[in-house]
């Protein structure tokens, strides 16, 4: 029997969750609290709680995060995830988004088809060191780091062979699927191999993220993230259970309007026992604080205009708070006031302002009547309804904020040096496959829904979107 890419992806997500829960037991607490909160939201809101995805999808939903060191390693990751119907979407430069030293660029591997996302939206936020960036690594450290990374092997050849076969054939037979899933899960386990104390410490002085990537001989799941329907309730409940959370929820503020984009938080990185090799060759037990438990609440995907508004409001908030010390709650209150003055409070206004993405569905065909050809009138006269498209991607500033909140130190970044130019085109070349634009993916889902509406209503021409000339 053939195990297709969708089933491989779902099974891999489940196995990673089980493995990570064994390695980081506080993650299990996070999942339990998320499900507890989700159940309460469902009871309180009913069907409205599923407006951004069925409770089955939300309960199963995870995103993972991994870090690799070289273009070759990233290309191998692309092959492994490609076999599970996960493709690179978006470009994130955390070098620019973080105030501390985070010398990585990132993409997210996820399904891109609407039906595949509904079936299982597992995503992996994947970061790669930019070792040629002189703000972080001088010539000598880059050379030695390249030698270290070049000598390691993150993924066994058999795993890569099975991945290539699965992608080419659309799946694997039962026996090969089991072997693939076992090898893939094992590749992201925390290694028991001793860490060189001196080498790790040298990289950590530059960046704790660089040390986590280039200071060890393997990669691992850095965090695994469940989805919750009320992240504020979860944050409070985790704290009540004695789990130390980071100082704030990253992303848009809590307010009384539509949920947009993505809100994230996490518990603080835990002290995990690791073996270290000292300079005299002895091996001792110590600990590292690297991995943490993240949770997310997903909102509505925004258009480029909606994203520009979000970025403008974030910049205004930064300017307001420059030089001031405020609590997380005070910051949220100030942000919410900004949003209340500039962001629509209804989904209908988001549609008419072309600020967010929705799919559209015929609700009243009215045989014999002539429907209008513009979307605003179709909606206002009740011909069609709008359903929000969930935001499937990430915010670089929020990702950097989570990283920073869990770092042992800010590291060092020489702003007088010139940074390495490593943009989306360079990342796509490394991946050896297209780097999908999130906006184009959302727009295509919207366009497909409008095409269905046009066919069902018998309209001859295109349906005019708000703002279209």
Automatic annotation (TrEMBL):
Iron recorded as keyword: yes
Domain of life: Bacteria
Record field: transmembrane: none
Matching InterPro entries: HGLS, YdcJ_bac-like
Keyword annotations from UniProtKB, A to Z: Dioxygenase, Iron, Oxidoreductase
Record has Ribonucleoprotein as a keyword: no
A Pfam family assignment: HGLS
Cofactor annotation: Fe(2+)
E.C. number(s) listed in UniProt: 1.13.11.93
Protein family per UniProt: Belongs to the 2-oxoadipate dioxygenase/decarboxylase family.
Protein name (record): 2-oxoadipate dioxygenase/decarboxylase
Source organism: Nonomuraea helvata
């Amino acid at each position: 029997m053939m195990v297709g890419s969708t089933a491989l992806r779902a099974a891999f997500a489940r196995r990673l969750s089980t493995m990570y829960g064994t390695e980081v037991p506080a993650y299990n607490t996070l999942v339990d609290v998320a499900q507890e909160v989700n159940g309460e939201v469902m009871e309180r809101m009913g069907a409205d709680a599923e407006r951004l995805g069925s409770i089955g999808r939300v309960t199963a939903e995870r995103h993972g995060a991994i870090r690799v060191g070289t273009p070759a390693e990233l290309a191998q990751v692309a092959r492994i995830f490609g076999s599970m119907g996960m493709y690179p979407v978006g470009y994130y430069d955390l070098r620019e988004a973080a105030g501390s030293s985070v010398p990585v660029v990132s993409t997210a591997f996820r399904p891109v088809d609407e039906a595949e996302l509904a079936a299982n939206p597992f995503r992996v936020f994947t970061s790669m060191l930019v070792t040629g960036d002189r703000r972080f690594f001088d010539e000598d450290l880059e050379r030695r780091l390249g030698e270290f990374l070049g000598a390691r092997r993150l993924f066994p050849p058999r795993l890569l062979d099975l991945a290539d076969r699965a992608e080419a054939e659309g799946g694997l037979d039962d026996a090969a699927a089991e072997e693939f899933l076992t090898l893939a899960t094992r590749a992201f386990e925390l290694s028991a191999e001793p860490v060189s104390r001196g080498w790790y410490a040298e990289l950590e002085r530059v960046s704790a993220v660089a040390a986590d990537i280039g200071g060890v001989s393997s990669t691992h799941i850095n965090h695994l993230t469940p989805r919750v329907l009320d992240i504020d309730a979860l944050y409070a409940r985790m704290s009540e259970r004695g789990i130390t959370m980071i100082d704030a929820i990253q992303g848009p503020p809590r307010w009384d309007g539509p949920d947009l984009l993505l809100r994230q938080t996490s518990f603080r990185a835990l002290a995990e026992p690791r073996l270290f090799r000292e300079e005299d060759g002895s091996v001792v037990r110590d600990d590292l604080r690297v991995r943490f438990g993240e949770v997310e609440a997903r909102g509505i995907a925004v258009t480029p205009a909606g994203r520009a508004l979000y970025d403008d409001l974030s910049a205004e908030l930064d300017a307001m708070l420059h030089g001031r010390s405020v609590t997380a709650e005070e910051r949220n209150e100030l942000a919410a006031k900004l949003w209340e003055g500039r962001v629509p409070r209804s989904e209908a206004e988001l549609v008419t302002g072309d600020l967010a993405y929705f799919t559209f569905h015929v609700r009243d065909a009215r045989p014999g009547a002539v429907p209008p050809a513009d979307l605003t009138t179709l909606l206002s006269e009740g011909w069609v309804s709008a359903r929000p498209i969930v935001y499937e991607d990430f915010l670089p500033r929020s990702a950097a904020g989570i990283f920073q909140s869990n770092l042992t130190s800010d590291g060092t970044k020489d702003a007088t040096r010139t940074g390495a130019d490593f943009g989306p085109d360079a990342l796509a070349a490394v991946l050896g496959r297209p780097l999908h634009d999130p906006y184009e993916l959302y727009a295509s889902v919207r366009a497909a829904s409008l095409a269905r509406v046009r066919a069902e209503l018998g309209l001859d021409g295109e349906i005019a979107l708000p703002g279209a000339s």
